[in-house]
Amino acid sequence: MLRTAAMVTVVLALAACGGATTTEPSTTEAEPSMTNTTPLPTGGLDVIVPPEAEGDFPADLTVSCSNGRFPIGALREIRSLEQVDPGGVAEAIAPFLANEEGRQWPQHGWQVLHRSDDEIQLVAKRADGLLAFMTVSNDGSGWTWASASLPGDPCELEFTVPDHLNTVEWRLDPDGAGLTAESTAIPVILQERECVSGQEIGDRLVGPQIVMTETQVFVAFAAQRPQGAAFDCQGNPTSPFVVELPEPIGDRQVVEGLEIGIDLADYVD
């Protein structure tokens, strides 16, 4: 299990009860409610994993941030490359770090974030506190450098949508009616994250998944990928949507359901 450091990242103040550089459930009982009650389209969304009573998550839960996906339990196993190099990894990344571009990456302090049979994800903390990443791969003949990235934002962990779906981000609609404890409708603005050549989400929308606990309302969306194999990044349009809750908000906080509230940098020396 792994415990979240700060679960809530998008919070509403309820009016009646007092928001990279890359190289290469709801009931009327008193118990907590954690049931998805909003009807979902075919292939509905099921990605939100509320923390357990102690704020823990299953160690095998797949999460993502700037450098791809890995089990959240990996955060407890991060070790210095010098300590756990299986042989040949340090040599594989040395030429990249020595070239003109690689000199922008940290030259020391690389740690193993996650390892599979044929890939190792490496992470290091930069002088500005943000993270740098590299990946090495092994085709059976030894480890070779595969890619590197310098994200411009913190590596905030997220729940992952299935591989065949795109991620859809949302924010509260500034033109929507103000929310109160009695509200059962949340007006939001949706925007697809991945490049789709400027296509509207339309009927490709999947969700929302809604998970209501005693203290929070988690909301998450995704989208079916459009037809085609290549898309440009001209900017995706936004779409209004109204999230219908099975019961009033009450004094709960409304939360971006994909965000976990853990910054990977907190686990990297």
Question: Your description of this structure?
Answer:
By secondary structure, the protein is mostly beta strands. It folds into two domains: 2-19 and 25-56 and 160-263, no CATH class; 68-152. The protein contains two helices and 18 strands. The protein has helices at residues 81-84, 89-98; strands at residues 2-3, 21-23, 56-57, 62-65, 68-71, 79-80, 111-115, 119-125, 131-138, 143-150, 156-159, 165-172, 185-192, 205-212, 216-224, 238-244, 253-256, 259-263. The longest helix is centred in the middle third of the chain and has 10 residues, at 89-98. The radius of gyration is 21 Å and the shape is globular.
Write the layout of secondary structure elements.
Layout: E1 2-3, E2 21-23, E3 56-57, E4 62-65, E5 68-71, E6 79-80, H1 81-84, H2 89-98, E7 111-115, E8 119-125, E9 131-138, E10 143-150, E11 156-159, E12 165-172, E13 185-192, E14 205-212, E15 216-224, E16 238-244, E17 253-256, E18 259-263
Parallel strand pairs: 15-17
Antiparallel strand pairs: 1-3, 2-10, 4-5, 4-11, 6-7, 7-8, 8-9, 9-10, 11-18, 12-13, 12-15, 13-16, 14-15
Which structural class best describes the helix and strand composition?
mainly beta
**What is the terminal-to-terminal distance?**
21 Å
Strands side by side in the biggest sheet: 2-10-9-8-7-6
What fraction of residues sit in β-strands? 35-45%
What is the overall silhouette? globular
* Low-confidence blocks of residues: 1-43
* Mean pLDDT score: 83
Counting H and I runs of at least 4 residues, what is the number of helices? 2
Tell me the Rg in angstroms: 21 Å
Largest sheet: 6 strands, antiparallel
Helix/strand order, N-terminal first: EEEEEEHHEEEEEEEEEEEE
- Please tally the β strands and state the result: 18
Total count of domains: 2
Helix content, binned percent? under 10%
